[in-house]
TrEMBL record:
<comment type="function">
    <text>One of the primary rRNA binding proteins, this protein initially binds near the 5'-end of the 23S rRNA. It is important during the early stages of 50S assembly. It makes multiple contacts with different domains of the 23S rRNA in the assembled 50S subunit and ribosome.</text>
</comment>
<dbReference type="GO" id="GO:0003735">
    <property type="term" value="F:structural constituent of ribosome"/>
</dbReference>
<dbReference type="GO" id="GO:0019843">
    <property type="term" value="F:rRNA binding"/>
</dbReference>
<dbReference type="GO" id="GO:0005840">
    <property type="term" value="C:ribosome"/>
</dbReference>
<dbReference type="Pfam" id="PF00573">
    <property type="entry name" value="Ribosomal_L4"/>
</dbReference>
<keyword id="KW-0687">Ribonucleoprotein</keyword>
<dbReference type="GO" id="GO:1990904">
    <property type="term" value="C:ribonucleoprotein complex"/>
</dbReference>
<feature type="compositionally biased region" description="Polar residues">
    <location>
        <begin position="43"/>
        <end position="56"/>
    </location>
</feature>
<protein>
    <recommendedName>
        <fullName>Large ribosomal subunit protein uL4</fullName>
    </recommendedName>
</protein>
<comment type="subunit">
    <text>Part of the 50S ribosomal subunit.</text>
</comment>
<keyword id="KW-0699">rRNA-binding</keyword>
<dbReference type="GO" id="GO:0006412">
    <property type="term" value="P:translation"/>
</dbReference>
<dbReference type="InterPro" id="IPR002136">
    <property type="entry name" value="Ribosomal_uL4"/>
</dbReference>
<comment type="function">
    <text>Forms part of the polypeptide exit tunnel.</text>
</comment>
<dbReference type="InterPro" id="IPR013005">
    <property type="entry name" value="Ribosomal_uL4-like"/>
</dbReference>
<keyword id="KW-0689">Ribosomal protein</keyword>
<comment type="similarity">
    <text>Belongs to the universal ribosomal protein uL4 family.</text>
</comment>
Amino acid sequence: MPKVALLNINGDAVGEIELSDEIFAVEVNEHVLHQVVKAQLANRRQGTQSALTRSEVSGGGIKPWRQKGSGRARQGSTRSPQWRHGGIVFAPKPRSYRMEVPKKVRRLAMKSALSSKVNDSELVVLDQLNLDAPKTKEMVKVLNNLKAERKVLLVLPEKDEVVERAARNLPNVKMLYVNTLNVYDILNYDKFIATKAAVEKIQEVYA
């Protein structure tokens, strides 16, 4: 079982926590990670883009000049794609970009993402995260103690309004709860900071 130091909000080690081999020590499957991240980003797309084809733009009903004898290239409509105010050749239309991924693949991707954080020493586990007040400077102080200057993903077991209000104004910090944890955000952030309770809940959910 991999072991990670258990820290307090001052950055001091107060013990160790054993992590589950099934979740935090699996072989990282890059193909599965790519598949799930690709699907996740595709599913975020609204797919509402739309433009008009030559049959949908207004005007252009009459032939602009006769077929022969003018010396100019033949034209059938002023709403052809090569004309100003003409239609779009392959105009995008509203569509769904949704991609389905099997549940087993999603679970394997989550385990691979969590294991990669352990392998890269980017997992930080706190014994607890209790702030005196819901203020940004309190959260900044904690992050400085943990030497987390870059992009930080903060994971809690359940809703905590004090921590949420303290972290929401920091551009390099994103806070998630265990039930909203996803592969893309795990891989996209440099530091993965979670409380001991959050880690235990992750191990329960993905066991």
